[in-house]
Amino acid sequence: MTPHNHAIKGDYADAVLLPGDPLRAKWIAETFLDEAKLVNSVRNCLGYTGTWKGKRVSVQATGMGQPSLSIYVHELINTYGLKTLIRVGTCGGLNARVKVRDLILAQAASTDSAIVRDRFGPYNFAPIADFGLLRAAAEKAEAAGMRYHAGNMLSSDIFYHADGFAGYDKLPDHGVIGVEMEAAALYTLAARFGVKALTICTMTDCLITHEEIDANERQTSLKEMVTLALDVAVEA
Ligand SMILES: O=P(O)(O)O[C@H]1O[C@H](CO)[C@@H](O)[C@H]1O
Ligand SMILES: O=c1cc[nH]c(=O)[nH]1
Question: What family is it from (predicted)?
Fold first, then answer.
């Protein structure tokens, strides 16, 4: 047990889906998993373990932002021994080619966060997805006819950017296609502790065209992302 998690060792499967939103964790457990059991409710940051296609898998909410995700991920790896971590998030769009409801597989994650900059002195560490998970997700998305884009994500500490889209500066011109708030920290921790990680996001609001998914429809629009992530997780 930890200050943030009252699960005991063995309560989690080796692979976990990581939504930011605790209610998304509950929805995933109740909608997709068989025999889902609540394993953590500290701070209402809900975690469940159940089965998908007969294989054990967990889902644990991380809250919003890299400091919050880092706490849950650090403990999932170091206290509970998890080996495969797949974030299932929502993100904003930074490229008009990416339409709302499209999936972004975050091949890499750029960031403005000190949480990643912290340890690398003069070097700019490049947080990247596990290649095997990325390849599996891309192949499965392709086979299922899902609209997806693999590319560079921005994991920003700022949701309300004072300068709006302009605040992202040169990043969209350098191929950054989406913005969310956690992938870079997830990839950095996975690298540090030698486990596998991937971020899959559904694009919910485009910062260029201002097209967006209505708040009430957001959860149900995430079905493709969740089934894809579950398929990748149980085969990892
Ligand atoms: O939908 P989730 O997984 O929370 O992800 C995105 O949504 C939150 C901001 O609204 C941030 O956590 C961002 O990364
Ligand atoms: O972090 C996020 C998530 C969704 N949409 C955004 O613009 N930013």
Answer: Belongs to the PNP/UDP phosphorylase family.
Give the strand pairing for 15-18 and 84-93. Answer: parallel
Whole-number Å distance between alpha carbons of 24 and 9: 23
Pairing outcome for strands 34-40 and 47-52: antiparallel
Interface TM-score (ipTM) > 0.95: yes
pLDDT in 10s for each residue of the chain, 236 residues = 899 999 999 999 999 999 999 999 999 999 999 999 999 999 999 999 999 999 999 999 999 999 999 999 999 999 999 999 999 999 999 999 999 999 999 999 999 999 898 889 999 999 999 999 999 999 999 999 999 999 999 999 999 999 988 889 899 999 999 999 999 999 999 999 999 999 999 999 999 999 999 887 887 789 999 999 999 999 99
What separation in Å is there between the alpha carbon of 129 and the centre of ligand 2? 20
Q: Tokens for 106?
A: 């975050």
Q: pTM higher than 0.80, yes or no?
A: yes
- What are the sequence ranges of the domains in the chain? 15-235
Residue 99 DSSP code: P
Indicate whether residue 64 lines ligand 1 (CB < 6 A).
yes
The two structure tokens encoding residue 149: 């884009």
Q: Does domain 15-235 have CATH number 3.40.50.1580?
A: yes
Among 11, 157, 205, 231, which one carries the catalytic annotation?
Answer: 205
